[in-house]
Every structure is written in C-alpha cells, then in structure tokens.
Design a protein that fits this description.
5-stranded mixed beta sheet; alpha/beta; globular
Length: about 120
Amino acid sequence: MKYEIKVIKDKAYVWIQVYENITVDIYKDFAEKSIQIAKEHRINKYLVDVREARLFSSALDQYRFGYEDMENYSLGKISRIAVLVKESDNSHDFIETIFINAGYSCRLFIDADAAIKWLTK
C-alpha cells in the first residue's frame, strides 16, 4: 500500500501517511478518499505526511489537481491542509502555491508538532 488514511478523532483531523514516491494520480487517489472520510466524520482538516515521498509530476498535472480535481471532490475552501515534508525535499512546493492560489488554506511544514498546532488552532 502506498498510503494510509486515519481519522485522529481527539484532534479532529484526517491523517494521510504516504510511504513511497508519488505522482499526482496517487495524490488524487488519496485526496478523494480522505475527503470522503472527512465528510463522514464532519472534519475539514488534513495532515498529509509526505516526508518519505517525493512528488514526480508535471506542473500542469499539479495545477489541474489543485484547481480542477479538488473542486470535483468538493474540498471545502474552509478546509485546512498541513503537509509534512522532508527538509531537503522541495518537490511539493508547487502544490502548496497552487492550493493557496486556488483559495485553500494549505501550508508546508518540516516539524510535525508545528503542523498539528497550526492545523488544530
């Protein structure tokens, strides 16, 4: 399995852990599933841990993911998305920019505690 999705009930967020390098197609797969799970639990916060997963996709694919796919999956603009990345990995930087420009609250973090604090404030 390339990723795992869990609901962290006491903090009210959906946690997605990615275990290997990914493409936008894998991002789409876990995004759709995690948004569906979040809706079932009435949650609008997501912690995406990609510290062990570099992103290998074109800028165009990433753009379509942020602007088209998220709208199709009905990700609410009030959602908060914290993305944990490895300090030396900048492959997810453009996704953050796209999500912010598309009107979502999204931020990259290298520290898990800081990500959770921002996510749950």
